[in-house]
Amino acid sequence: MSTTITITPAGGTWTIRAGGAVIGETNGALELNEGNLPPVIYFPRDDIAMAFLDSSDKTTECSHKGTASYYSIVAKSKTYENAVWSYESPKDDVAAIAGYLAFHEQDGVTVEQV
C-alpha cells in the first residue's frame, strides 16, 4: 500500500504556544499531508525560540520520511516530553521539511493559525 505525501505552504501566520507562552510565530510554515492522517504544520527552526526546547534521546523511524529526532518543551510550569520532532535528513521525497519542527498538540501545547 502506497502513502501519498504532499507538502505545501501553510498560508497565513501560525503560532505555537506552550504553557501559555508563544514560543514561535511564522509566515513560513509548511503543511504536510500524509494519506488519511490529519495535516501536520511544520515550523522553520529560525522562527522558534529554541531556548525552550531540550534535545531528547528519542528517535523514531518512518518508512516514508526517515528518522525523526525529538525535543521536549521546557515551559515555566511544565516540561512537555518529546512534544517536538524534526527530520534533519529526511528522504528525498520530503526534503522540504529538513530542519523544520512539528509539534504534538496536547493539553498546554497548541498550534494555531492567527
UniProtKB/TrEMBL annotation:
Transmembrane segments: none
Entry-linked Gene3D superfamilies: Domain of unknown function (DUF427) (2.170.150.40)
Source organism, top-level taxon: Bacteria
Residue ranges occupied by any DUF427 domain in the UniProt entry: 15-105
Any Pfam family: NTP_transf_9
Alphabetized InterPro entries for the sequence: DUF427, DUF427_sf
Cited PANTHER family: BLR5716 PROTEIN, DUF427 DOMAIN PROTEIN (AFU_ORTHOLOGUE AFUA_3G02220)
Protein's name in the database: DUF427 domain-containing protein
Organism, scientific name: Thalassococcus lentus
Classification of source organism: Bacteria, Pseudomonadati, Pseudomonadota, Alphaproteobacteria, Rhodobacterales
